[in-house]
Write a structure and sequence with these properties.
Blueprint: H1 2-21, E1 29-43, E2 52-66, E3 71-80, E4 89-102, E5 105-113, H2 118-124, H3 133-136, E6 143-154, E7 157-164, E8 180-187, E9 193-202, E10 210-220, E11 224-238, E12 241-258, E13 263-274, E14 284-296, E15 299-310, E16 318-328
Antiparallel strand pairs: 1-2, 1-16, 2-3, 3-4, 4-5, 5-6, 6-7, 7-8, 8-9, 9-10, 10-11, 11-12, 12-13, 13-14, 14-15, 15-16
Amino acid sequence: MRNQVLLVVILISAISSFAQETKDEFKSNGKPLFNVFWNYHVYLMEDAPKTSAFELKRAYLGYKYNFSETISVKVTIDVGSNDGGSAYTAYLKAAQLDWKAASVVKLSMGLIGMKQFKDQEKFWGYRYIFKSFQDQNGYGSSADLGINAEFILAKNLKANVLIANGEGYKKIQDDDGKQKFGGSLIFTPVKGLTTKVYADTQSVEDGDAVSSYSLFAGYKEDKWRLGAEYNKLNNAEKYSKPAEDKELDGLSFYGTYVISEKVEIFGRFDQLTSNDNWNTSKDGNQIIAGVQVAPVKGLKFALNYQGYYFNNDAINTNSFIYLNAQFKL
């Protein structure tokens, strides 16, 4: 982690020095970034390993710098728990250059945020409470090494095309050097309604290519929003674990009602299924419901219920009461 923090400091210093030498009329500027996910939860299951626990799930630390009105960079470190035994591990989550090459074209390169479920995650609106469906169930990574191009095709139609390693931000490109190709179309036919189609594919050493597809629709008004998505993963147990003829299908429905400027209630239902029931230890339904309070900008609290009901009757339901918090700059 020390080396990664040092890298960020060096990059920021270099960026600032370069920006001071530019004679563009635009005044270069930058700002630090941080985003922390904290929670306290109570176990409701009779056979629970403990009664309650505090967790600091994620801390994103970074810096964004605008060279000009069209060129900017962002560096972010992701500090979170992992399966390697340590409580927290730091990863370089983003080292991204954004260039608005034209009024209708934007290019991003480096270790970039992926577009696979970004729109769904934003519409869901409670990432600090629970990941979006595809992120939670391994359909893709939230960041990867690659290049993304975004295009405004019409007033109500946008598209993106990407090429990436396909390994995610925690792994280096594999020895085979096979990239992931993908893209999406976002159509807003009327005010408040957003629709999205996404697809990607990545060849593997043996067997059929790993691919994923998703459909999303969301409608938003002043007081409420409703979203629905269908997701499919082919020839893999997760995006980074190819497995021929294994498939995952998923549905996700979520909604929010705004009571006041600072208070809103929300709910969500997910359904995960596998072909031939190969994923019996995870197939099932996720239910989330709660209330969020945002007393000031950058600070949110949410009291909510989270339950996972497995299709396999031999596995007991996971049930929790959560108090989540987000501190963000």
